[in-house]
Amino acid sequence: MGAYLCIAQNGVPPSVSRRIVLQVHFPPMIWIPNQLIGATIGGEVTLDCNTEAFPLSLNYWTKDDNYMIVSSDKFKTSNSEKSYKVHMKLTIKNIDSSDFGTYRCYAKNSLGSTQGSIRLYEIHYSNAKEPSTARIQSMNVYNMLYMFGYNQVKQKKNIKTSDTLEGEEDYSNASNTSNSVKRGNHQKLITNKQIQQMLTQIEKRSQ
């Protein structure tokens, strides 16, 4: 589908050309990048749906098949059109428990209709309380402690912000002996006593 140019010439000017536009009529098609999306209470999320149709389709959203969604303080709908393609977006603001469920995007034209579904679920966050269960896995040591507000880690001489732990180490039974943390052909030492002190600080700040 698109424009074609037909040109005729025989060596004697001028040449002659004609432009022909080909249009293919077809029913709507839908594809969805992410059909399962998580969000937190009080947050904001955007659902995406892509459609193709000609003639251009009528596009809209529904929630749990109960009602059509229109733009409001809670929802924002937008469509970006390019030729026979439409990118549909639905933004949900200030999410509460009633917003979780199944959302559907619809596309209809004179040749047919189709729909796609997106499931929005709640993400729960929980804070670790017991330092004995803390595990350091594939994470920069400084960044991990900084997230919990322990900003004194730079003062530790044996720990550098470039040290990354690969694999998984359990420091629940920390003692004064030292553990070797290997990365490639390099080996760096982090004492169990230092790790235990850091985890204790994390425990105090998370209470």
UniProtKB/TrEMBL annotation:
Q: Which SMART domains match?
A: IG (SM00409), IGc2 (SM00408)
Is Iron one of the keywords UniProt gives this record?
no
Polar residues composition bias: residue spans: 172-188
> Which positions fall inside the Ig-like domain?
27-119
Which Gene3D superfamilies does this one have?
A: Immunoglobulins
**Species of origin:** Oppiella nova
Task: Write down the Pfam families for this protein, in alphabetical order.
Answer: I-set
Output this protein's name.
Answer: Ig-like domain-containing protein
Give the residue ranges for region: Disordered: 164-188
The entry's cellular-component GO terms read: neuron projection
Signal sequence: where?
A: none
